[in-house]
Design goal:
By secondary structure, this protein is of the alpha+beta class. Helices cover 44% and strands 23% of the residues. It has a 5-stranded antiparallel β-sheet with strand order 3-2-1-4-5. Helix 1 (9-45) packs antiparallel against helix 4 (146-172).
């Protein structure tokens, strides 16, 4: 017999499982939101205007955060374009920014792909003509939304199972009518 005021072991287990289910749902919701935002931003870029731009500077940048850390390299670019009779410059390859790597070869390949003086297509935000990129973001996060949604569905399933088990035990002990 359980003393009055103490939580029954099955009830404690059910509450724990409900907490775990809530955590799974919260994690799934956060990642779903982040992936949706990435997809939505990339989908919105498909409305950006394509214009020709001229590469003004293309180089490999390097950094070393500390003496015990390897040198990292990143591709850096500056390009100019004209839109509606106004000249603009930008240094954004993509909205995500430059990625740093320990491989200098990767950045050197990009410098070769975007040599100074070359004319390439760039994409300009029609609402903010000073904002442009050379590479549009991928819409892949939208196609992967199913993955964090599994955590939400799993979390809801864990909570439903815990509550059903708790109710079944309470009914069998005569505490719930």
């Amino acid at each position: 017999m359980v003393e009055k005021g103490l939580c029954h072991p099955v009830r404690a287990g059910s509450l724990y499982l409900v907490f775990i289910g809530l955590c799974l749902c919260a994690a799934g919701a956060v990642f779903t939101l982040l992936m949706w935002r990435s997809y939505d931003r990339a989908a919105g870029q498909r409305d950006w205007r394509e214009v020709r731009c001229t590469i003004l500077d293309s180089r490999v940048d390097e950094r070393q955060i500390g003496s015990d850390v390897k040198v990292e390299y990143a591709f850096s670019i500056t390009y100019g374009y004209s839109l509606d009779g106004r000249a603009y410059t930008s240094d954004r390859f993509s909205l995500r920014g430059a990625s740093w790597s320990s491989s200098i070869e990767r950045s050197q390949r990009m410098v070769k792909k975007f040599p100074v003086g070359a004319t390439k297509p760039c994409y300009v935000d029609p609402g903010e003509p000073s904002s442009s990129v050379l590479k549009l973001d991928s819409k892949a996060p939208g196609y992967s939304l199913w993955f964090p949604l599994i955590f939400i569905v799993g979390g809801v399933g864990v909570m439903i199972g815990a509550v059903r088990t708790d109710l079944r035990v309470r009914r069998s002990s005569g505490k719930v009518g």
